[in-house]
């Protein structure tokens, strides 16, 4: 068999295996696999350099299936490369199988999970960035994209950043099969327009017939030598090779109706194996040596913004840990990652205002073993929610820092206020959610994040807060701090971040009124310090949670969770931001939101029955406000009470 | 004063007012305002047709400040147009002022909130779509964009969709001032490359000097007559006109240091007013008449997927309510919005695989009074989280439907499973979060959504569920359904969606064991039916929540919230998805996640002390599992227990 014949046969085998695997599973996307089979046959047999026996070899090329639904094709490639058996292939999509409906790192050499479209290419940018700027190894990153997913803006973020960073080690192979799930794509087979777009974004672009093996061969060679990130726009046919489904609408995401006939039409099963090229270059070991670092710490009583402590600590980590890298979404002077950028310019990556690419690049960098910290305003991390969700499925080790938490940012207004970030990150599988109240806590938690696997989120404050924690205190993920407490405590104030100061002030005033209040700083919102909270519940019976966040999903819910099966009656009141904030000073906004010392004191008195609510509300009204029955009612969803009238 | 002199003076006035307002506030973005002042002066005086006295006139043009941080410029325009006084201008950013740090609809004629970059243009696409396809009025949509925000992929989603829908009524004015917050943009002043990109995306593009008033005049005229969506790439200088800040780095987002001197340099304050042109065309009233609609209902006992009920009900609503429109992210055959598309093709908009543009278009459509329902897989709505967050600040009326909830989708794997959507939508200001378990419930809730203001989210199931609810039952936002119950109930099973069936089965088996269990279907997760839940807590003392969702932020947390100040001891156990799922059948995956009838029965017996846990766990282990202390520990964030071993 000559090269071309072998590749043609291999392409047919990949089609046959896609049909077999999805027929056996009773679901899957064979037609989306068949369009790209020739593209992948040529890649596997001649261009990919990947040692399937040593998937962790740092010299390996990387193959990312951005169109993750073409998993039958991917698994067919693994079989052809000898990485899995035919038996395993036929356990596709069955319970417990490593061959899930969409690829995940459970099956090597898969770097990251795909299946949410538009993510593989921006993650590929991160891997390619690692190759060019950090690993400095000549591996290549190949990303198979669907044409439908070019409608995702994240694809164009990837195009722009790849060109900006000169990632000539990155090749996007776009399978232009024209047909989406329900309809034709916006551009159909207009590969020239795709190419024009890629060129306008600074890429080298090639248009080709994706079923012409010589054209595919030539295109890969061109990509390898273009000196620029290169996109191949390959005109293909969905379901290619089987008349019943080829280029037919309505054939997306389902097994081929008559698989035996389809397989016969493709020439029957084959048993080809490919000797995939291995990376052969020698590696020079250039391991950077960790240096002594002076970690920052602050005197108790100093006023420091926790975002500043984040930046300073990250910079020190950059000294002691050569694997630490940082990225930011063009707000590094706000998040304080600018300090790292200045100290370690070679390990800082500016991702501009493109939060999806920001997180995707971090996921790509960690796939190569780099400890990536990515930062922006916490509110804007919502932009990357789908990427964070998928990062958990990728089993990624990801450190995210969001600054400018809550109404306490003040005059910039609600668009810049993170009020849902705790909820978003608590509901990420295996996450840690940290919201320190002072600089020393922050420093210790940033270091703990560096040591931790999985997804860790640090929420920092715009404004300065007084340092309360000594530099040698036991601050850890899962911990908390008793700010004040005694045996006589009748109520526990549970706070985090900026509300710790409000709770402390409230406790002072309550003490003057003869009410002893415990103050807990729950800087670790997830995992939360259940033992300390349950002890407080036992000791005081009443807990008031106070957070600069919407009432749902944040500190209050985390506290309620760990008291869910508490054996005795406990009263928990959640103080949180219930009305839509506006601009104002931090103090004005905390007062309007009802998360300041005044509201804490009033609520405690009201709960303990000691005194009238100074806001003039009846007990019923007050409970309704605190329980959130105002502002979330059906009739008044916008809750546009003029904050001045309050 | 001739036209050009007037416009020059007006531009200077806008600069002066930007400096004055931000100096008074002590914060804000005057330099980002000054670069676009000439562009906006010419727009206001000659091209914008907007009756500021009648901001709700449907014939008005729309002006969207996608670069919302240029709010001082925007408010300066409102002052020049006579919509606000100088006194109000100087209350910029003060507490309670309508002139927030970033524009919101609190100040007319603002359609939507901006301030998260990259959102104004895709929302403008929605407004322009309303103008072309629904209102059929010749108003124009002008969007002022920053150059930095073109790094957001959502901008390119907007470019692609505007061209696809032929929105020649849309003009993007890109203020290319070169400087971002911390650094130069990727393209700097390379306006030609910007234009090349826009053209490749199907737009007409004009490059110009944004301080040359004649060039600006010519460009607007060109935009009005190009017959295509048109982008102006205007080369400008940040801080234009004041030497201390003009084209200087480090001058972003802060008041000018010496405002008096800067104002003097600009020629001092002016008091110009602009007679902004009013839309003058006559409107033909073409109000569509509502038709009689046959709303779907199903017999109790039928098996129907709730997504199917969504599509059928939406289609009926389309008959009875001419203002209802639908959009989908290229999965309309999965979400069942395809039924609406078929019945009402003129009111259906295919948004392809671009969830940010999907939600943004819905926000734009509702700004013109259309009742937009947008659907895609629930998991992929995370892609639009930032747009949903901002929609709440926009006081938008938005209906979102997410299909394919939870592990119960089966073989496609975790990338397609929504496991965080309840948490995400609960933490949206003023939201309703609905998760019906059967078709009749779904139909009634979809109708309720149409009547409701604010943001409503409906979560639907991929698989069929039995119809339990009669078509005439009282199903409402904030309600719940007692599936079964008696005076003897010793435990309450609280479920929603697919877990209602598991709870029902568990209750049957518990009854056989002599344990009476109440089953509540909490189809309204927010607002939740607190009265019924509190009654159940009073009657049974033990509640078990069961949800096909991560443990955080969903049904369990909502239940705990409304029992937070319950006067007696209550035990709540949350069953939820704690390990990372894989592919498999729905039943296998629910069993592995511990949210099936088996686990419910076992947990109830264990809580009530009646029987040994059949999974062989010690009581402590079981509690740890249920409380989530496994799978979220610091040491094992990935929680990659092989699901087969369980």
UniProtKB/TrEMBL annotation, chains A, B:
Compositional bias annotation for Basic and acidic residues: 636-646
UniProt organism field: Amycolatopsis samaneae
Cofactor(s) required, per the database record: Mn(2+); Mg(2+); Ca(2+); thiamine diphosphate
Molecular function via GO: transketolase activity
Signal found in the keyword field: no
Xref: PANTHER family: FI06132P-RELATED (PTHR43195:SF1), TRANSKETOLASE (PTHR43195)
Gene3D superfamilies from the UniProt entry: 3.40.50.920, 3.40.50.970
SUPFAM superfamilies xrefs: Thiamin diphosphate-binding fold (THDP-binding), TK C-terminal domain-like
Stretch list, region Disordered: 610-646
Ranges for domain Transketolase-like pyrimidine-binding: 304-467
PROSITE patterns assigned: TRANSKETOLASE_2
UniProt family annotation: Belongs to the transketolase family.
Entry's EC annotation: 2.2.1.1
Assembly: Homodimer.
Protein name: Transketolase
Keywords: Calcium, Magnesium, Metal-binding, Thiamine pyrophosphate, Transferase
Class of the enzyme per the UniProt entry, highest EC level: transferase
Metal-binding found in the keyword field: yes
